[in-house]
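We now fix the convention by which a protein and its fold are recorded. These numbers are not coordinates but entries in a learned vocabulary of local backbone shapes. A record is reproduced here so that you can trace the correspondence yourselves:
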Amino acid sequence: MSFTLAIVGRPNVGKSTLFNRLVGKRLALVDNQPGVTRDLREGAGRLGDLRFVVIDSAGLEMADDDSLQGRMRRLTERAVDEADICLFVVDARVGVTAADEYFAEILRKRARHVIVAANKAEGMAGEAGALEAWSLGLGEPLRISAEHGEGMDDLYRVLMPLADRVEAERPEPVAALTDVDLSEADAASGEGAEEWRPSDARPLQLAVIGRPNAGKSTLINKIIGENRLLTGPEAGITRDSISVATTFMGTPMRIFDTAGMRKRARITDKIEKL
């Protein structure tokens, strides 16, 4: 059983912390300042016996132009359109904001299934905000704490029936070829028996590195044939190490986009240090 879960919400509500909790590793950069995550990051999530693909997204901004925030928002909306389930995270300590209400309306129109999670709800500080999340009209909000791991059992309880529904709605897979006849020439040359060849299970892994604004993300988008990574004229857009799976000229690959590298003496920003 597998499905895609996209974590969406305003900046600094704890999406990346929740992503790290679900994948069981500190893959995504986390900091108190808003707007740390910019690209879409995918990981193998697990919760109990559920196995799924989890997507960490940039904070939803109320911008629809070609600015950096506008391009980040379009990437997040793409994740919403492609995901089986959207986990809409709000900050229980801040309460429901006008931006939350605005994005809840977008999710109501575009997402297949939506779960509301009131994060940072540990203790009494998030009680009012968690109750306020009912006003979004997207069902019962879950009280969770991504940092402390609270509420994960409630998330599992809600995800389980949705995962079954997604599985039922998915079209029948195309049967794989299991019996393949090799010619004598192929058998003599050892074709098909060489374990070193890249495969879907063991793809060729390629890291693209270089200075900031050298065009690393643009190059990867050109290789995979789609605008999967955030690009633009601004230097230092990519912050995390983002991996994308693709097949290039018949070879299964996983390509890693990396943050631009500079000399240590020139690095002053905290996020760039991370």
Summary: Residues 28 and 75 are 17 Å apart (CA to CA).
